[in-house]
Amino acid sequence: MKCSEVIRFIENWAPKEIAWERDNVGLQVGSYDSKISNILLCLDITNDVVEQAVRKKCNLIISHHPLLFHSLKQINPSKDKISKIIETLIKNNITLFSAHTNLDFTKDGVSFELAKVLKLKNINFISNLNSNQYKLIVFVPESHLEIVANKIFEYGGGIIGEYENCSFRTKGTGTFKGHEKPQSYKGEKNNFEKVEEIRLEVLIDSWKLNEVIKAIKEVHPYEEIAYDAYPLKNNNTKYGVGAIGYLERDMTEKNFLNYVTEKLKIKNFRYTKGKSNKIKKVAVCGGSGSEFTKSAISFGADAFITADVKYHSFHDANKEILLIDAGHYETEIFSLNEMNRRLKTFLQKNKQVGIYKYTKSTNPIIFYNN
């Protein structure tokens, strides 16, 4: 199996197109064509991570945070640590791939996994992404309906939430008049024709649209295909920011703080007091998500767990919502569990490929206790 197959699998779940526009996701170092031996999963790329990959004979590393985020003006292994890591990766033929904000914004990604660790129920996004879908309508003769529909589904069209192969089909009559050039499907020159057709409607993510249309042209019987593509303003149910859900039972503020400590396996965190002593509805956003505090409040959340919260953000939230800064690393590390589960399922027929998680911590923050 090649790296490209695994990368395609991950990007079908967390498409690079939904990433923050200034992010640098995807292939960082190496080749799509490399044959995979083993895979190492990690949150950050450090020398220790790469050394463990070498020891485990992993030639594909999948990280959450990109190694290459800012432009490099030179690669000099003797001068900086990023260059040194790149040198080690290349010397050992290791491919590095990163899924960052696209993993943040996808269903069952960073925030959803954090919500699951807290055992929240009825999990939804705090805010869905919008304006990234099209309604594609194509007119197909009945004889070729299933061929065209299946081709659309094959290329990722017709997905609504947890459902695949979704479409709406309406019968009608198509008309055309051929000219001097012979028709490839039906009709005589200069003759007015009527054909029983189906109006086939499907939802398409914007980044899949061109590929789907190209695929349709390969199997559609008409020389000139009638289709419409309308940009939508609908919320995309598969992609969004943060997550919000409900605890199995109400907790007092103190009990909830202890609960967070236990579930996230942490000893220290910062917080500000909330509006109520009863905690039931909880919002989370793995990594830096304090900008969504107001959204969490507007959704009626009793508590909001995120990281990298600024002083004034705590002030704004005080007595409005129990705002918890549980740490950047601490709120994102659990996402590797879902990545691991999905890859194991995908690779179950390729048992020769091992999947490992980095065994140490890449968290650079240390709490000082006097």
List key phrases describing it.
370 residues; alpha/beta; Udp-n-acetylmuramoylalanyl-d-glutamate--2,6- Diaminopimelate Ligase, Chain: A, domain 1; Alpha-Beta Plaits; 3 domains; five-stranded mixed beta sheet; globular
How would you describe this structure to a colleague?
With 370 residues, this protein is α/β, with parallel strands linked by helices. The chain has 3 domains: 3-100 and 335-357, Udp-n-acetylmuramoylalanyl-d-glutamate--2,6- Diaminopimelate Ligase, Chain: A, domain 1, CATH 3.40.1390.30; 110-128 and 240-332, 3-Layer(aba) Sandwich (Udp-n-acetylmuramoylalanyl-d-glutamate--2,6- Diaminopimelate Ligase, Chain: A, domain 1), CATH 3.40.1390.30; 132-232, Alpha-Beta Plaits, CATH 3.30.70.120. Helix content is 29%, strand content 29%. It has helices spanning 3-13, 47-55, 81-91, 101-104, 110-117, 145-154, 209-219, 253-264, 293-298, 311-317, 328-332, 335-346, and strands at residues 26-29, 38-42, 60-63, 95-98, 121-124, 127-130, 133-141, 168-177, 192-205, 227-231, 235-241, 243-252, 270-272, 278-288, 303-307, 322-325, 354-357. Helix 5 (110-117) crosses helix 12 and helix 6 runs antiparallel to helix 7 (209-219).
